[in-house]
């Protein structure tokens, strides 16, 4: 059995550092560990940057922009590839891993949309029959592993969460953040927002 979590944000975001230094360390981790491919078109880092760019273009809050940038941080912290460098045929719940690792440092306005962005895909597929057809092939493949269509009870529970609207927004940005060779600002564009979210957590 492979070890799931290979890196810990407790080390990267050590409390002995200033908020700015902690974000710099986080961005260094993302730069170093974000070069594997997310799907057929973009790397993990490119996907994160495109999602954050879409959030910023949408005039999102700093918490929403930070959530968009960090929504797949669980992928950065785990080696989910097999010997052929393909994603494993099992769900390691990157959204839960990411949110749990971020929880000591960020407030719920950042972590809750992150943990909900996979349920948001299931939700949208359930309430909108056409939504599934617009997903990337990689996202379609992972859909059943992540639970498939929601039950009525799951829909009701999702809609009761105060962050479910932001989670749906994040899901839309996630879906749009898979454009090959798209030029968007780099990590430093978001340093101020992420530092602010750390300081106000």
How would you explain this protein's 3D organization?
The chain starts with 8 loop residues before the first helix and ends with a helix. The protein has eleven helices and no strands. The chain has one domain (17-199): Orthogonal Bundle (Hypothetical protein af1432), CATH 1.10.3210. The protein is mainly alpha-helical.
Number of strands: 0
Instruction: Report the sheet-strand fraction.
Output: under 5%
- Compute the number of helices: 11
Task: Estimate the mean pLDDT confidence.
Answer: 88
Report Rg. 16 Å
Q: Please name the fourth-level CATH homologous superfamily.
A: Hypothetical protein af1432
> How would a textbook summarize the main sheet?
none
- Name of the top-level CATH class: Mainly Alpha
Tags for this entry?
201 residues, mainly alpha, Hypothetical protein af1432
Q: Secondary-structure blueprint of this entry?
A:
Layout: H1 9-12, H2 19-33, H3 44-57, H4 62-70, H5 73-77, H6 94-102, H7 108-127, H8 137-145, H9 152-160, H10 164-176, H11 191-199
Helix pairs in contact: 2-11, 3-4, 3-10, 4-7, 4-11, 6-7, 7-10
Q: Quick summary of this structure?
A:
The chain is mainly alpha-helical. 58% of the residues lie in helices and 0% in strands. The model is unreliable at 81-86 (pLDDT under 50).
């Amino acid at each position: 059995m492979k070890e799931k979590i290979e890196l810990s944000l407790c080390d990267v975001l050590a409390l002995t550092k200033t908020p700015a230094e902690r974000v710099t360390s986080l961005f260094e981790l993302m730069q170093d560990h974000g070069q594997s491919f997310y799907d057929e078109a973009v790397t993990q880092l490119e996907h994160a940057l495109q999602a954050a760019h879409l959030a910023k273009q949408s005039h999102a809050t700093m918490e929403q922009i930070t959530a968009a940038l960090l929504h797949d941080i669980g992928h950065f912290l785990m080696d989910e590839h097999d010997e052929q460098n393909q994603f494993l045929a099992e769900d390691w719940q990157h959204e839960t891993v990411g949110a749990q690792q971020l929880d000591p440092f960020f407030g719920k306005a950042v972590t809750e949309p992150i943990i909900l962005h996979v349920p948001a895909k299931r939700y949208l597929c359930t309430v909108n029959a056409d939504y599934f057809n617009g997903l990337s092939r990689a996202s379609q493949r992972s859909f059943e592993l992540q639970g498939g269509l929601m039950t009525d009870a799951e829909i009701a529970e999702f809609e009761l969460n105060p962050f479910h609207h932001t989670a749906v927004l994040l899901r839309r940005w996630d879906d749009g953040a898979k454009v090959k060779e798209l030029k968007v600002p780099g990590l430093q564009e978001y340093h101020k927002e992420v530092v602010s979210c750390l300081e106000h957590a």
